[in-house]
Design a protein that fits this description.
Elements (H helix, E strand, L loop, with lengths): L75 E5 L4 E5 L7 E8 L5 E2 L11 H11 L6 H11 L9 H12 L3 H6 L3 E4 L7 E9 L5 E3 L4 E4 L13 E4 L4 E5 L8 E9 L7 E2 L7 E5 L5 E11 L8 E9 L11 E3 L11 E8 L3 E7 L12 E9 L2 H6 L8 E6 L14 E6 L7 E10 L11 E4 L10 E7 L4 E6 L11 E10 L5 E6 L2 E5 L5 E6 L6 E4 L10 E9 L11 E3 L11 E8 L2 E7 L6 E9 L7 E5 L17 H7 L1 E6 L9 E8 L11 E2 L12 E9 L5 E8 L9 E9 L7 E2 L8 E4 L7 E10 L11 E4 L3
Antiparallel strand pairs: 1-2, 2-5, 3-4, 3-6, 6-7, 6-8, 9-10, 10-14, 11-12, 11-15, 13-14, 15-16, 17-18, 18-21, 19-20, 19-22, 22-23, 24-25, 25-30, 26-29, 26-31, 27-28, 31-32, 33-34, 34-37, 35-36, 35-38, 38-39, 40-41, 41-44, 42-43, 42-45, 45-46
Length: 798
């Protein structure tokens, strides 16, 4: 029966031991037994051991196991050699010692040990054990653990129980150590060919002997031969070859394997493992899982690109070897990537290039000599993209640099700096760079950390193009096209500077109120605003005074991220534009004449009133066609719009009289009128009126308009207006009177009342210090209206 023990060397000093990736199975003694050991073992005798480690094992490629620890019960095993039987058992917690009992076939049990088998407790024997074990330990870590376990005066934190655990651990690896620490017994009093039965009893903490373990049956001298290993395979890696093979039959008393290597298939083969191998491999060198894990050995003594041949032989617990396996071969290759390029640096050169430099690479990540084939340069426009790019090659690659040392016949002395010139860069744009390198075997390193660089900009962008402006009621909208973005100097555009001035070199005079005149002087362009959105192509200027009649001049300059300013663009002039159409005009007279009809109409006296459109139809509700129209402007320059009301011109522009001669006698016609201003805004049509064979007269003019100042109960002031009709009664179509008010006698009248048939009105929207002028006009439902009354004024006092 084969015993396996999973161990961990990294935490030998712990009772429970931590999990690690390096795993060893149960192993027997190092050399083959040549003679029968005596029953009484001298603990000071020379014992040759080697702690069963293979430091060349790639720990990242091996499986995880829970290591050995003290158990609650005892398991007894027997191993047969030609002249003796080795009895070995697992150590038990709290056992003070052990007694072994044997009986022949058909006989009774008798104790075979002359004294209790115990752990050596005195410090002298522990020190002697240390002196014997220490020179034989192969590795520094082994020596450290043995020292800590045996010399508690130097390591007081290690208790006796800890030392006991460590030596029980060592005893499960080599039976010679197990004999010393009370975990094994060699029975040399057996007779070859005879059947024996064994039992073990332990002494508990109270000194009572107890029977706990199993019974073991053996035939003395019946040595079982080991079977030939099967399934041996060799996998090549970088400077290493991994061997794996199948499990032996469960009846084999296996205690490890010897591994042999040669550079020729016919030998000679040389053993390369210092200690027997029982390592379990769970992952191949390529990272593939081996299910179930297989026995294996990792040879790291090999040189790349050399073919090696291997065979293995099994070994039992007592040191006997089995038959050799078949021969397998493998050739290791370079799979280790180069080191990262160091001292990455970025320097701006001229006005259109960034120079990237770094130190050449001549070692791989294992610090071995390396021959690099080329370097690959990656560029990014933001840091997040740079750190997220983990692929060996990607869309961010912008070029390669061949390593001169990799070219045959090229020998550079003292030249350790490599460089790459990036000419496809935009000034003031931050770029991030990373570099990787590839060796002659095709292994690619990781990318370097990202390093940023920026090219200063000294060249200004082009000026904005196609500047236009459009006026509205309360703002002017300026539009433009950006510079040609296909030009490199325009690709770092950052924004625009908008400038404003006044068109022309003359004064603009604006009459705001009676007696108040404002004079605006022409001045050069001044900065209006900084437009920081580089994608903007419009701007709305709301900073213009309400109702301003001035023509403003606009121009732009573009600037880049380095604040380089372009030349001034072409300028454009514009003013506020009235987008509100005039009120519908009123037909004041529609007179039938012989062979003609005379139409008279008026509109509100607005400063930008331009003209009228008279439409006629033979039906009241549809079919209207234009019979008269003043010229409607298609486009109006800002200087064509009057800046103030000229009372003479306004009076002329706000009324029209037209004789329609293209009419048939004794036929009814319907007329309506529209007004339009200088901006081409058309009013809604006036109410339609039809002709008669008689003259349609206007409503009579209101007379005797009076204004009286009144005091309200709350102390405020009001103006009470009253007037007379001039006739005894109005027709049924009469709508009522409308009151108009102004702060100047001859212009600026605004409606302040709704139509009412009352002949009085109270104006409460007045304040002390105001001088108000009033007029009254009568309207009917046909759109006819009377002449306005004479004006009357009043000054509001406290």
């Amino acid at each position: 029966m084969m015993m396996r023990l999973v161990i961990s060397i990294f935490c030998l000093v712990s009772v429970t031991f931590a999990q690690i990736k390096h795993v060893e199975k149960y192993q027997g003694p190092l050399q083959k037994s040549q003679s029968v050991p005596q029953v009484t073992i001298d603990t000071t005798a020379q014992v040759k051991i080697a702690i069963p480690l293979q430091p060349q094992i790639d720990k990242s490629k091996l499986s995880l196991y829970i290591p050995w620890k003290l158990v609650e019960g005892i398991h007894l095993s027997a191993y047969v050699d030609t002249h003796f039987v080795l009895l070995k058992w697992t150590a038990m917690k709290n056992a003070k010692g052990y007694n072994l009992y044997r009986r022949p076939e058909g006989g009774t049990y008798k104790k075979i040990n002359s004294k209790l088998i115990t752990w050596p407790t005195d410090q002298k024997k522990a020190t002697q054990m240390y002196d014997k074990l220490m020179p034989l330990a192969q590795y520094k870590l082994e020596r450290a653990h043995i020292r800590k376990a045996t010399q508690s005066e130097f390591y007081p934190q290690f208790t006796d129980k800890t030392k006991e655990s460590v030596f029980h651990y060592l005893g499960n690896l080599y039976y010679q150590i197990a004999l010393i620490v009370g975990q094994a017994y060699a029975d040399s009093t057996v007779q070859s060919g005879k059947v024996y039965y064994y039992r073990i009893k332990y002494i508990d903490k109270n000194g009572v002997e107890k029977d706990f373990a199993n019974e073991v049956k053996v035939t003395a001298g019946a040595v079982k031969k080991l079977t030939k290993p099967t399934g041996l395979k060799a996998e090549a890696g970088d400077s290493k070859i991994l061997l794996v093979w199948n499990d032996p039959p469960p009846t084999d008393t296996l205690a490890g394997y010897h591994v042999y290597q040669s550079k020729s298939p016919i030998g000679p083969f040389k053993r390369i493992n210092a200690t027997p191998v029982l390592t379990t491999i769970a992952v191949s060198l390529k990272g593939d899982s081996l299910k179930p894990p297989q026995y294996g050995f990792l040879d790291t003594t090999v040189v790349n690109y050399t073919t090696y041949y291997y065979r293995i032989a099994p070994r039992n617990l007592l040191g006997r070897l089995g038959p050799m396996s078949t021969i397998v071969s493998a050739k290791p290759i370079d799979l280790t990537p180069p080191q990262l390029p160091q001292n990455l640096n970025i320097t701006p050169l001229q006005t259109n290039m960034l120079l990237i430099t770094w130190n050449w690479v001549n070692k791989d990540v294992r610090k071995r000599g390396e021959v690099v084939k080329r370097y690959q340069i990656f560029r990014y426009t933001d840091y997040n993209s740079a750190i997220a790019d983990t692929a060996a090659t990607s869309k961010y690659s912008i070029g390669f640099v061949t390593e001169p040392w990799s070219q045959p016949g090229v020998h550079l002395i003292g030249d350790t700096v490599r460089s790459f010139s990036d000419k496809n860069v935009i000034p003031e744009q931050v770029y991030w760079y990373r570099i990787s390198c590839e060796d002659t075997a095709g292994n690619v390193s990781h990318k370097t950390a990202a390093l940023s660089g920026i090219l200063p900009d000294y060249e200004p962008p082009d000026s904005p193009e196609a500047i236009t402006a459009e006026g509205f009621d309360d703002y002017i909208r300026i539009s433009w096209k950006p510079p040609n973005m296909t030009k490199k100097k325009n690709q770092d555009l950052a924004g625009y500077m908008l400038y404003r001035g006044i068109c022309g070199g003359y004064h603009e005079v604006i009459e705001r109120d009676e007696g108040n005149i404002y004079v605006y002087h022409a001045y050069p362009l001044h900065l209006l605003t900084d437009i920081t959105d580089k994608d903007s192509t419009t701007y709305k200027d709301y900073s213009i005074p309400k109702g301003s009649p001035i023509c403003y001049r606009y121009a732009l300059r573009a600037y880049d991220k380095a604040q380089n300013l372009s030349a001034m663009s072409d300028s454009v002039c514009e003013r506020l534009r009235d987008k509100t159409p005039p009120d519908p005009p009123v037909i004041t007279a529609l007179k039938a004449r012989e062979g003609a009809i005379k139409i008279e109409c008026v509109a509100a006296p607005i400063q930008d009133m331009k003209g009228f459109i008279i439409e006629r139809s033979e039906s009241k509700d549809s079919g209207y066609k234009i019979v008269y129209s003043d010229s409607i402007p298609k486009s109006v320059a800002c200087g064509d719009i009057p800046s103030s009301v000229d009372t003479v011109l306004a009076k002329k522009a706000n009324q029209v009289s037209y004789v329609d001669k293209n009419v048939d006698p004794e036929k009814v016609y319907w007329y309506r009128v529209r007004a339009f201003d200088h901006n081409g805004n058309k009013s809604k049509p006036s109410p339609s009126i039809s002709t008669y064979t008689f003259e349609i007269k206007s409503l009579p003019k209101p007379v005797n308009l009076k204004a009286d100042l009144k005091k309200q109960r709350d102390g405020s002031c009001s103006v009470e207006l009253s007037w007379e009709t001039g006739i005894s009664r109005y027709p049924k179509s009469f709508l009522g009177f409308v009151v108009f008010r102004s702060f100047a006698k001859n212009h600026g009248y605004r409606q302040i009342s709704q139509p009412s048939k009352d002949m009085q009105f109270i104006d409460t929207a007045v304040a002390p210090g105001m001088t108000c002028w009033y007029k009254v006009q009568a309207f009917d439902s046909n759109g006819d209206r009377s002449p306005t009354s004479d004006s009357v004024s009043i000054t509001i006092t406290e």
